[in-house]
Amino acid sequence: MAPAQLYSTESGRLFHAGRIVIVTVGLPARGKTHISVALTRYLRWLGVKTRAFHLGDYRRTTVGPGRDVPDDYFFVNASPSSVLLRQKIMKKCREDIYHFLNVENGQIAIYDAVNAMSSGRKALAKEFNQNHVQTIFIESACDDERIIEDNVRNVKISSPDYVGWNADDAVKHYLARITAKIPYFETMEEPDLNYIKMINAGERVTVNNCSFGYLAHRIVFYLLNLHIKSRRTYFARAGTPSEYDSYKTDASLSEQGKKYAEMLGETLIRHREEERQALIDRGGSNAPLRPLSVWTSTRRRTIETASYLQARVYKVRQLTQMSQINPGVCETMSEEAIRETMPEEIAKHEADPYHHRYPRSESYHDLAVRLEPVILELEREENDVLLIAHESVMRVLYGYLMACNAADIPNLTFPRNEIVEIIPASYNNQAKRITIPGLPEIMVPDSPEDIKIPVPPSRVISPFNGITDSPASVESAPA
Fold it and tell me: Residue 410 contacts by C-beta under 8 Å, 6 or more apart in sequence?
């Protein structure tokens, strides 16, 4: 089951929704692929079997690496050879969509393409309807040149089309290609089609609701919280407590913890400035840094860890949903005591550490369901965000952003001497680890190797043997 999936069915399809094809509409650099990837990630998180089919990938595969389509490829009155090439690419993509829906029991296929003309969209809806598949169109419209250029610079030129290009040259070429190759575009106004139109990165949303069911309304709700502006997300652990920190005690920071909070803030501020300067040195924009918001739980340690940044006029928010996983009866028990007194629970937990609950505790699945409002807030936030939280919360939120499997989430590790940075790209997110230099070794001990308990003591990095990454490592999430 998926991380936030509530139930399963024999067919694998949920919410009595049947099969749906979501068709994107919009000129390049308007955020269609970002919407496709984000929606795929969210629906998979809910357990809906979803796959995105990017027509650009089929185009690149057909024409070959380093080659481009003919100049009139996107024109209405294209040459016969261009029309045949276009039909060949679209035919292969549609065949894969039907195979996913009919053979692999997929539920939602996302057809990511320009789909510029009203006649073509009506033909698509008719074809899918004849095959008993519901169609929903999502148009991303944008007339704000700043948003378009920012999207091109931060996301589009990282696509396979521009490997090895200079950033400025890639931006100019991409914008010129939009103007020259797609001279005809008709915005969505068809009264008989189901569509959602997002205008200027979510400033305004129009819904033409013809026959939406529950799952379609969940998609609309998600899109109301989504924008296409590029921003960074950072994860950091809270500092160490002044006394043994149980779930009920809610201890304050120790002197070491206060020093850690200062070093965390200084490291992140310095890193953001260095990243901005590196962008300027590469010929990028010299615009000011995007504002940084700091999110914590309502636990004392997370709030006090954010105090250094709050004193420097960074906005801090406290969210009750970000509180750590509830350990239940295991709260004050040692690893040996849990193993001796609850061998059956240990066996169940080791068989499925994501879904298992110790007595009176929460599972990671419970935590994922609890964190859904935070996920939607995170999608809606336009500033860069630093999340200061317990490792259990970081595992789940990182698992969402990086599209991790449920089985992998309990094994993710977040040493206290690292800040994790999530960077958006064309088809996935990337994660980079930033070292906090000079942190005392006592604050970042090795992970225990014995028992898998749900909440480790505060001075322990992780109770799991999981992913270990060097400070410079970069991870990528699948689309």
Answer: 353, 354, 364, 395, 452, 464, 466
Q: What band does 15 get if pLDDT is binned at 50, 70 and 90?
A: confident
Given a contact cutoff of 8 angstroms between Cβ atoms, the answer to whether 96 and 53 are in contact is: yes
Helix H or strand E segment including 138 = strand 134-141
In this structure, which long-range contacts are made by residues 339-348, counting pairs with CB atoms below 8 Å and at least 24 apart in sequence?
339/450, 339/451, 346/451
Q: Report the distance separating Cα 436 and Cα 472, nearest Å.
A: 12
The mean per-residue pLDDT over the stretch 191-209 comes to: 89
Torsion 93-22-398-353 (CA) sign: negative
Answer positive or negative: Cα dihedral of 296, 301, 303, 307. Answer: negative
CB 140 within 8 A of CB 30: yes
Banded pLDDT at 457 (limits 50, 70, 90)? very low
Q: How far apart are CA 164 and CA 158, in angstroms?
A: 10
Instruction: Say what the pTM is.
Output: 0.85
Q: What pLDDT does residue 246 have? A: 66
Q: Distance between CA atoms of 232 and 364, rounded to whole angstroms?
A: 25
Task: Give the 3-state secondary structure of residue 106.
Answer: coil
Mean pLDDT of 310-336: 91
Structure tokens at 350: 């080791």
Residues marked as catalytic = 112
